[in-house]
């Protein structure tokens, strides 16, 4: 009986400590959410950082929306993607709508020999913002060994999702450091925060982007550089193949408008209020439960995709 009492006291303090810790974490998250999305603040970007913004994969989806938001802030925009026709069309739209200068570079980030051309095209530009947005995912969630053309997929996905982030940062960061200012926005994914089976290679590349962003921010924040890791859940774009936006699946325009409010305030963000809530819940789940749920989710999308493919 006597020896049970100190144990009960110990458990009491462990319990109280855990409750206090969770209460503090939740209050801090709510305070930050209110500060970012409730109070709002001016754009954390603009020509004062350097007149040009560079957006990789800037002709569709999330990248196109970043290019438009940055142009709205008065920045000149460089768009980089594969198709010159799409580049011409989107850059014309941006020039006409926002009255800013634009530049285009046609390059395929699946290749490794494009960076000399990009370097030459960017020479002499004062780049204030780099958005490392380009990324590719699976056609549909699939088991590792069943991925069509696996060897080629591995190489392509690593080049587009990882190599592009490192190489573009290498090209742009020296100028930012020289001018002691600059913002780098790296588009990771919620599947880079927590593993997402059946999107295994993709999820792992996005984990790389998240770690890379956090480390570079820590290395260069004292030089006036702000690096952000953006971790969206599903957004309605060609990549997700979700056609109809919903409460949890915003359009890319709504997503980016919201994510831009976090620039300068948060080094890691899910970018959208409901996505942040989802991120908080997911991070509190035991990892075995999370993995079971995400595997279940992946399997159900896979089944729907394969059923649809069989019909067509
Ligand atoms: C609060 C959270 C609490 C607990 C969570 C617990 C556990 C965690 C579980 C899941 C984790 C959650 C999110 C994942 C994390 C990160 C995701 C990041 C994604 C990312 O980074 C980008 C990608 O890589 S996307 C993956 C690659 N692309 C694909 O796999 C495309 C596959 N999809 C398709 O081919 C088609 O969409 C389809 C065949 C599945 C359906 O097409 P269709 O018949 O044409 O139907 P609709 O497009 O009209 O859609 C109908 C409804 O289905 C929903 N839906 C469609 N696609 C998806 C999808 N990929 N993921 C989720 N939901 C999808 C769509 O919203 C419609 O819903 P309703 O309106 O409700 O009917
Ligand atoms: N949509 C979603 O649900 C989520 C997306 N993300 C991330 O957001 C980023 C953008 O995704 P999203 O907007 O959905 O993608 P989209 O497929 O809608 O757009 C992709 C853009 O990248 C360009 N692009 C694709 N492949 C290459 C390549 N090899 N070389 C050069 N450019 C290329 C495309 O232009 P073109 O085809 O002309 O080359 C297009 O401009 C990605 O990094 C993705 O991982 C993260 C979480 C969720």
Description:
- The protein is α/β, with parallel strands linked by helices.
- It has one domain (48-310): 3-Layer(aba) Sandwich (Rossmann fold).
- Helix content is 54%, strand content 12%.
- It contains 9 helices and 7 strands.
- A 7-stranded parallel sheet has the order 3-2-1-4-5-6-7, sandwiched between helices.
- The longest helix is centred in the N-terminal third of the chain and has 36 residues, at 4-39.
- It is globular, with a radius of gyration of 21 Å.
- The structure holds ligand L2RBQRAD and NADPH dihydro-nicotinamide-adenine-dinucleotide phosphate.
- Ligand L2RBQRAD is lined by residues 137-138, 140-141, 189-191, 196, 199, 202, 233-234, 239-244, 246, 249, 278, 281-282, 290, 293-294, 297, 301, 304-305, 308.
- Residues 57-63, 81-83, 86, 108-110, 133-137, 160, 187, 189, 232, 234-235, 237-240, 252 line the site of NADPH dihydro-nicotinamide-adenine-dinucleotide phosphate.
- Pathway: Lipid metabolism; fatty acid biosynthesis; Steroid biosynthesis; estrogen biosynthesis.
How far the N terminus sits from the C terminus, by CA atoms, comes to 72 Å
- Find the structural class using helix and strand composition: alpha/beta
> What are the distinct ligands in this entry?
ligand L2RBQRAD, NADPH dihydro-nicotinamide-adenine-dinucleotide phosphate
- Shape descriptor: globular
What number of domains?
A: 1
* Fourth-level CATH superfamily: NAD(P)-binding Rossmann-like Domain
Query: In CATH terms, what is the fold-level topology?
Result: Rossmann fold
What is the name of the CATH class? Answer: Alpha Beta
Distinct helical segment count? 9
Q: What can be said about the biggest beta sheet?
A: 7 strands, parallel
Query: Order of strands in the sheet with the most strands?
Result: 3-2-1-4-5-6-7
CA radius of gyration is 21 Å
> In what range is the share of β-strand residues?
5-15%
The average pLDDT score comes to: 95
CATH architecture: 3-Layer(aba) Sandwich
């Amino acid at each position: 009986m006597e020896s049970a009492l100190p144990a009960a006291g110990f458990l009491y303090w462990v319990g109280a400590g855990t409750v206090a810790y969770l209460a503090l974490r939740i209050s801090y998250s709510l305070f930050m959410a209110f500060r970012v999305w409730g109070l709002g603040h001016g754009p954390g970007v603009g020509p004062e950082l350097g007149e040009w913004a560079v957006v990789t994969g800037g002709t569709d989806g999330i990248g196109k929306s970043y290019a438009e938001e940055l142009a709205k802030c008065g920045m000149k925009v460089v768009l980089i993607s594969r198709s010159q026709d799409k580049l011409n069309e989107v850059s014309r739209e941006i020039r006409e709508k926002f009255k800013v200068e634009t530049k285009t570079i046609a390059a395929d980030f699946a290749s490794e020999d494009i960076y000399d051309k990009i370097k030459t095209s960017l020479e002499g530009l004062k780049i204030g913002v780099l958005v490392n947005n380009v990324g590719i995912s699976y056609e549909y969630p699939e088991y590792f060994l069943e991925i069509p053309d696996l060897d080629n997929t591995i190489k392509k996905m690593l080049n587009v999702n990882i190599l592009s982030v490192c190489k573009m940062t290498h090209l742009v960061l020296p100028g930012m450091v020289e001018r002691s200012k600059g913002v780098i926005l790296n588009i990771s994914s919620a599947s880079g925060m927590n593993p997402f089976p059946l999107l295994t290679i993709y999820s792992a590349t996005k984990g790389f982007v998240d770690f890379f962003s956090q480390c570079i921010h820590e290395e260069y924040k004292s030089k006036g550089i702000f690096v952000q890791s953006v971790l969206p859940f599903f957004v309605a774009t060609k990549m997700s193949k979700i056609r109809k936006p919903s409460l949890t699946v915003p359009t890319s325009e709504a997503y980016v408008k919201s994510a831009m409010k976090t620039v300068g305030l948060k080094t890691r963000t899910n970018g959208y209020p409901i996505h942040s809530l989802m991120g908080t819940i997911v991070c509190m789940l035991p990892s075995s439960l999370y993995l079971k749920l995400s595997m279940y989710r992946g399997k159900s999308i896979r089944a729907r995709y394969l059923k649809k493919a069989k019909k067509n």
